Structures
1.
Amino acid sequence: DPTADENIMRLVEGLKVPFYRYTIDNKKFIELQNAFIKAGLINIEIPTDHILTASSLEMASKYGIKWIISGGNVATESIMPASWSYPARDLRHIKAVYKWATGKKLTGLPLCGLLKWNWYKWVKGIKTLYLLDYSWYNREEAIKMLVDKYGYHPYGEKHGESVFTKWFQNFYLFEKFGIDKRKPHLSSLISSGQTTREQALEELSKNPIYPELGIEQKVMEYPKRNHYDFKTDKWYERISKFVNLWK
C-alpha cells in the first residue's frame, strides 16, 4: 500500500532515524503465500510474519542492535483464540507446506528456525521490547498524535496498512472459516476501556469490507486443512510449553 510507504517515510524523516530497506525475492514470497492459500490453512499470514521476524533478527545481528521494538501490546491485542491461528516461527511447518504445494525445497528467503532463533536470543543477546506495554496505550490517542505531529494518514481499521492482511482478515477468514477477527480486536478495546460493548456491536453489525484480488472464487474451492496435517516442529512446541511455565 503506497500510503503505508508514505507513513513510514514521514516517521523516518520526522524522527531523524536511520532507514534501511530490506528487499526480498517477491516472486518467491508470493509463491510461498500461494502455497499456504492452496493448502487451505487458517493462518496464511505465516509467511509474512515469519519473514518479518527473520529479517529483523538478521538486520539486528548485522548492525549490532540488541533491542527490537515491537508494536504488540496487551491493550489492543490481548484476546485471540489459539485455534484461530498457528505459530509463524515453525520453520519446519513452513518448509513442509511449500514442499507439498510446489515439490521444491524452500530457499531464497530470510528464514529463521528454532536453533537460529536461539542463537540470536542467547548468543547474540537480541531481545524484543514490547514498548507499548510500559505505559498507558490508547489507540485513538496514538493515531491522533501521529497525525498531528508527523502527518500520518490513518488506515481506518486495524492492519489496514496491508492489502493482503486486510483481504486475509476481512475475506479469507470471514468467508472461508467463519472467523471475524474484529471480535477479539474489539473485545481487547472493551477490556482496556477504549470502546464500549454497544459501539462494538454496532461495528460488528456490518460485514467487513475487503479489497478484491480476483482469486476469491478459486480460494473458496480449495479444501480446508488443519496445520497439523503437515509436519510441525515438535521441539518448538515442547520448548514453548516449558518457557510458558516460567513466565
2.
Amino acid sequence: TEMVIHLTNRGGIINSILNDKNAVSNAVENIINEARLYEGINLNLEGLGFQVKGDELRAVQASFNQFTKTLAEKAKALDLRLTLTLHPPNSVYKGYDYKTLGGYADKIIIMAYDYGAKPEPISLVTQAVEEALLSVPKEKLVLGISIPSENTESLIPKVNLAKKYRLKG
C-alpha cells in the first residue's frame, strides 16, 4: 500500500510550500512520519508550471526536484517506495522535470488525460508516453488512463499502447 499525498496548486499553494525551506522540511518530516504505516508514498502534486516559462519555469522545476530528492532520500532510508503521479510531459503543466524526477522515484505514473477532448486523443497519449520514455526507463513508467474519459473503443488503443511500450498500468 502507498500513502497518497494529493494537492493542487490552486492559488500557488504548492509553490509557496516549495519556496519555503521550513515548510519543505516540515512537509517532508510529516509525510515520512505518516508513511511509516505504509509500504510507500504516492506524491501527486498537480498544477506546477502552468503558464510559466524560462527562468521562472526552471525555478519551479528545481524547487520540486529538490523537494522530491529530499523526500526520496528519507523514504529510501526507511525502505519506502516513492511513486510520483505527474502531468504528462506534453501537458500545459510544465513544472515536472521527468529526467531528474525519474532518478529519484521508484515509479512515475503518467497522467495521460485531461487534454480537453473526450475520449482522450490517442495521438496525445502516445506523444506523452514517447516523451516520457526519452527521460525515464520504461520499468519505472505507469500509464495512467482516466476510465470516465474513455469508452470501450477508445480504451483498447491505450491499453495496447501500454503493452507496446511494456509499461505498467
3.
Amino acid sequence: MKDLKYISLLVLLGLLFINSAKAQQSGPWSSLDSNAIMIGDQINYEFGITLPKDMIVNWPMFADTLTSNIEIIKRGNIDTTYSYSDISLAQKLVITSFDSGYFAIPPVDFKFKHENDSNYFSSSTGTLFLQVYVPEVDTSNAFKPVVGPIKEPYTFRELLPTILAIVGVLLLIGLIIYYIIKRRKNQP
C-alpha cells in the first residue's frame, strides 16, 4: 500500500514536470497531419507561435495558395491559449494539391515586438515537405461504367410532411363544402 502511494506521487510529479517543460517552449512551429497524400486529398497544416504575454504579433496572411502547387481550401480561426507567462497563437489551414510531386512548404515568418517598443523581431518556422502521389491506374483493363444512384424506399419520417399536407388540404376542402351547404340552407 505504501509503494502505491509513492508510485502515484512520482507519476503526479512527472506529469507536472512534463506540463511545466512544455509551457517553457517558445517560438514558432508548424506541422502537417501527414507528409504524403494522394492528389486532391486534403490535410491540415497548422502553424503558430508561443511568446511572452507582453509581445504583439503581426500575424502572417496567405493568399489562396501556399505555393504554386499547394492550395488553401479552408482557413481556421486564430486560436489563443494563455499560460502563466506566455501566450500561444495557432491557426489551422486545410490544404490540398492537384499536382503530383515532392513540394516544399515555405517557412512562416512571424514579426513581433514588445508592447512599448517600436523595434520588430522576426522568427520563422521550419520548412515542411509534402509528397503528392498519383493513383495507380491499370489501363490494360477495360473501364467500368459509373454506377447510378441506388434507390432507397421512403421512410415514414420522410412521408409524414406529405401525409399531413394532404390531410390538411382535405380538411380545408371539407370545411369549405360544409360552409357552402349551410349557407344555401340559410342555417346558422
4.
Amino acid sequence: MPKIDSFINKLSSRPSANAVENQYSCPAKADNLECYLRQIIKVEHTLFVGEAPGHLGAAKTGIGFTSPFQLQQGTHPFIDSILGGLSVGTASIKESTAKCFWESMKNHNINPVPWNVFPFHPHKEGDPNSNRTPNKREISEGIDYLHKLLKIIKPQKIFSVGRFADNLLNELKIEHLHVRHPSYGGQTKFKNQIKDFFK
C-alpha cells in the first residue's frame, strides 16, 4: 500500500528538536503505526482526533491514545487481532486517558483510528517526560499530516476529542462530532458522550 508507506516514511523522517520528540524516528513505533493502519482500513472505523501525543501514551507506542499497557493487555478485539505485529515496549507504563479511551471503544464495539492534531510529542524544552500544547507552526504542520491520513482511511465518523481539536476541525470545515477529552476529570463525560453517540 504505497500511500501508507509514504505516510510512514514522511512521519519517520521528521527531525526531533529540543521541544519535540519524533517517536516515529524509532523503527518499532513507526512499525506499530504502520501495522495498525494496514489492518484498520480493512474494517469499519471511526477517526478520533486529539491534541498531541502524551509522554506516557503515543510517545511510547506510536499509536494515539494508547499506552504500552494497552498493547500488552489486548484490551480491545482489534488490538487483540494485531498484537503479533506490535512492539509493546515497557508494558507496565499506563496512562489514564488511554485506559478510558480503549474501555469506551471496547464497550461500544468501535474500531478507532486514534490521531492527534500534531502527531509528534511536544514537550517542555529539554524535558521529554513532560507535555505541552502545540504552537501555531506545529499545528500548521499537523494539518498536512491530517489531510494525508484522511486520504488513506475512510472513516464512518470523525470525532474531535477536546476543544483544541474541535476548534481546528471547525476551522478546516471538516465535518465531525465532538466529545470531552478524558483528561483532567473528563472521563465520565467522555464515556457518557461515547455511549450516547454509539448506543
